[in-house]
Specification:
23 strands, Immunoglobulin-like, mainly beta, 4% helix, Jelly Rolls, five-stranded antiparallel β-sheet, 316 residues
Length: 316
């Protein structure tokens, strides 16, 4: 069934409009490797970091941005500003990327609207609006990192240069993809509710990807439901569909059930379903949906618990 669904996904891609092959490597980046500081969490509400950057010798057009973040779900945005050399601060909005951060810690981002043209050797600022509790996109620096300002850009003493920031800026149509949960799970025995995750944080053509469950019942039979939409089930029932009528009150179906792939959880309640996304340019930008269904006797009369649904937009 999963193979048939993946074939349908490719068919949808091939029948859609043609896409220009996108550039998958960043044209400007900061500390894309090294050690990520997993302990660097944002504790303030809706804080802003402005990171001063400089283009190299090539004029270029920025089309997308990624930050290394996760651990909480929230709206975020990254904006590109010009540079005020007198105030040494951001000046003049140039473009913006908005996305919904998933819990998966990894590279996450979105396309810039509009694209941003940079002159050779131009100084500019990457301004990140960070939700509370996310993992900041930084790693430790043995020397001074990029100069950045916080809050309202006004310096309070020396500019902050404690960390080396991790960012990726793309040229040429990069689509970072997305993994966004929809609705919520239903609790099982001891109110333990299964959680749907992605490995890595977003799906991308030609790259390993898996739909993951954790916090599920131990050593249980499970299925991943896949679909191409989350509005209707069988063309007649509205989604989400409440399974209370079948004996699982509070549990909902969030996807249209085009395919069910059998899996299982281990002793820790963790399971995974690999999804092979071929290197097919037409898949970029397509969204498919997924949800875990897990047997748990005693959880309710139906003996079934469910995760939230997830919208998975394929990137490159």
């Amino acid at each position: 069934m999963l193979t048939r669904f993946l074939g349908l996904l490719v068919l949808v891609a091939l029948s859609g409009p043609g896409l220009i092959r996108s550039q998958s490597a960043p044209c400007l980046s900061g500390s894309p490797g090294g050690t990520f500081l997993a302990s660097a969490n944002e504790t303030r509400l809706n804080w802003v970091y402005a990171i001063r950057l400089r283009n190299d010798a090539s004029a270029r057009t920025l089309t997308a941005v990624e930050m290394f973040c996760g651990e909480t779900q929230a709206d975020t945005s990254v904006r590109i500003f010009g540079h005020d050399p007198v105030a040494n601060a951001p000046a003049g909005w140039r473009g913006q990327a908005d996305w919904w951060i998933s819990e998966n810690v990894g590279w996450q981002g979105a396309q810039l609207r509009p694209a941003v043209n940079l002159a050779a050797f131009e100084t500019f600022w990457l301004v990140w609006s960070t939700p509370r509790s996310i993992q900041l996109s930084v790693e430790s620096a043995t020397s001074l990192g990029e100069e950045h300002r916080e809050g309202q850009f006004a310096p309070t003493g020396a500019p902050q240069r404690t960390y080396r920031w991790k960012y990726r800026l793309y040229c040429g149509g990069k689509d970072p993809g997305a993994f966004v949960t929809r609705g919520g799970p239903c609790g099982g025995v001891n109110r333990r509710a299964p959680r749907i995750l992605a490995d890595p944080s977003v799906p991308a053509v030609g790259s390993p990807f898996a739909v993951v469950i954790d916090r599920g019942p131990a050593n249980a039979s499970a299925w991943v439901a896949f679909g191409l939409q989350d509005q209707q089930l069988g063309g007649a029932l509205s989604l989400p569909f409440d399974l209370g009528v079948l004996g699982a009150p509070g549990c909902q179906v969030h996807v249209d059930l085009l395919a069910l792939a059998a899996a299982s959880t281990d002793a820790a309640g963790v399971g995974r379903m690999p999804v092979a996304l071929p290197t097919q340019a037409g898949l970029v930008g397509i969204t498919f949906f997924a949800q875990w269904l897990v047997l748990e006797p005693g959880a309710n009369p139906l003996g079934l618990v469910t995760s939230a649904g997830a919208a998975c937009r394929v990137g490159n």
